[in-house]
Hints:
The protein is an alpha+beta fold.
Amino acid sequence: MAQVPADLRYTKDHEWARDEGEFIRVGVTAYAVEQLGDVTLIDLPPTGSDLQAQERFGDIESVKTVSELFAPVSGEVVEANTALEESPELVNEGPFEQGWLVLIKPSEPGEYGRLMDARAYEDYLASLEG
């Protein structure tokens, strides 16, 4: 089964979110990376963009498919991982480290807490395979 770090929260669209105090860091899960294969292109919103939870904020393209990215929380993009423009394979190499996508300043305090914890996400993944 794919790696599911216990300190993160998750969406059914296979994005992860990490509470970093004032900000929420967002990326795609190891499960998503396994499904996508080799990532070839990532389209991210510019700094200053307003995101709404569960709404599309970009795309991730691989040798297999193009998938939409969905925001786990609402808020303003304070940083996009520009390293992915030149090196989208960083998502494959470390989806929870250097392959993160955006850093969001959340605008709705309760949204993060409503995301799945690691156990719930593992159960969700098991139901997909099941």
